[in-house]
Amino acid sequence: MSGLPMCTRGEIWMVDWNPRRGSEQGGFRTGLIVQSDAGNHAPGARTTMVVPLTTQGRAYVFYVPIPKGKLTGLKENSWANCTQVLTIDRNRLVERLGSADVSHMAAVSRALRDTLDLG
User: Fold this and answer.
1) What pLDDT was estimated at residue 27?
2) Stated pTM of the model
3) pLDDT confidence of 60, banded at 50, 70, 90?
4) How many CB atoms neighbour CB 18 within 10 A?
């Protein structure tokens, strides 16, 4: 497992989404780590769960605003698209940019619960 990037829930990374299929995200773009750290840091773990970030915000309950700034490492205001949760190999993580704060992650958690109808 040597050489795989270590990641933590709430971090924002540049992700290599290729190859894509259909309506999936593609190219190099930002993603937010949403998997628990129990999963991220488990011995032998090679994958993590992410949601893509987009600069095209929508007034949609499953899109959570994430502001640009030094903490997030984002150059533009973005939105976490909680309708596209993906499990990726950690080799797709290219560069850690920053992290979302606690209040934004709480909003992402609510959006994921609603997206997945977890109650």
Assistant:
1) 84
2) 0.91
3) confident
4) 11
Mean pLDDT of 44-72: 93
What's the confidence (pLDDT) of residue 107?
97
Residues 100, 76: Cα–Cα separation, whole Å:
14
* 78 Cβ contact partners less than 8 Å away, ≥ 6 residues apart: 30, 53, 54, 55, 57, 65, 66, 67, 68, 72
* Peptide bond just before 19 cis, omega within 30 deg: yes
- Going along the chain from its start, the domains and CATH numbers come out as 11-115 (2.30.30.110)
Under 8 Å between Cβ of 67 and 77: yes
8 Å CB contact between 108 and 34: yes
Q: Tell me if 64 sits within 8 A of 104, measured CB to CB.
A: yes
